[in-house]
Write a structure and sequence with these properties.
Layout: E1 4-16, E2 22-30, E3 33-39, H1 41-44, E4 48-55, H2 63-72, E5 77-83, E6 96-97, E7 107-113, E8 116-120, H3 122-126, E9 163-166, E10 169-181, E11 186-190, E12 200-205
Antiparallel strand pairs: 1-2, 1-12, 2-11, 3-4, 3-6, 4-5, 7-10, 7-12, 8-9, 10-11
Length: about 210
């Protein structure tokens, strides 16, 4: 990884490219982020920087968190994320990382938390078929079918069953940064990004580009 930044998903829209084609994009407010801590091989066993994003009130943080920010010379922030970069020589505690570290047309990987749907059944969670909505098949139109016959006498692992759906970390690879607005700290990424509006996402340069 060569670079990374923390951002907030603002929502989806569409823009027109140079040829007049409509491009669906996700707008992300990326940065500015402040380097709170720099980790080195000598002290920590690996190279990394810890970025902070979005101002927070002191009363919302614990004494340990306030002490951590005070040690780095940074005002209290809401979100922290560590990025293991190949080269951290250009960063020190207090350095600011902005969206213009990424270039227009560059491919990026974006990590976010998907929308949570609560406890759902097989139809919504896995896309299972339903039985005919007639009186003869009721009342089990949406229930799962056989899950463990007499021979194994148990339910196999990884069986597609009802359960908690969503609210998990997902990374989308090779998204294209269509447009970057350094003045407003915005980056427009082609395609959809996991999470709801206002959700925190982590952007890095693509590892498989």
């Amino acid at each position: 990884m060569k670079k990374g930044i923390i951002g907030k998903k603002l929502g989806m829209t569409q823009i027109f490219d140079e040829k007049g084609n409509v491009v669906p994009v996700t707008l992300i407010e990326a940065g500015p982020c402040v380097v709170v801590q720099k980790k080195t091989v000598a002290n920590d066993g690996y190279d990394a920087i810890q970025l902070a994003f979005e101002d927070a009130k002191e009363k919302s943080l614990t004494k340990a968190e306030l002490g951590h920010f005070k040690k780095g010379g940074v005002s209290p922030k809401k979100h922290l994320k560590e990025f293991r970069l190949d080269d951290t020589a250009a960063f020190e505690a207090g350095s600011v990382v902005t969206v213009d570290t990424f270039a227009q047309g560059e491919k990026v990987d974006i990590t976010g938390i998907t929308k949570g749907h609560g406890y759902t059944g097989c139809v919504k969670r896995w896309g299972h078929h339903v039985l005919r909505m007639t009186h003869g098949t009721g009342p089990i139109h949406r229930q799962p079918g056989s899950m463990g016959s007499i021979d194994p006498a148990r339910v196999f692992k990884n069986m597609k069953m009802p359960g908690q759906y969503g609210h998990e970390q997902v990374t989308i690879l090779n998204l294209v940064a269509v447009k970057i607005d350094a003045e407003k700290n915005l980056i427009a990424v082609k395609g959809a990004v996991p999470g709801a509006k206002g959700g925190i996402v982590f952007i890095r340069d693509s590892v498989k580009a």
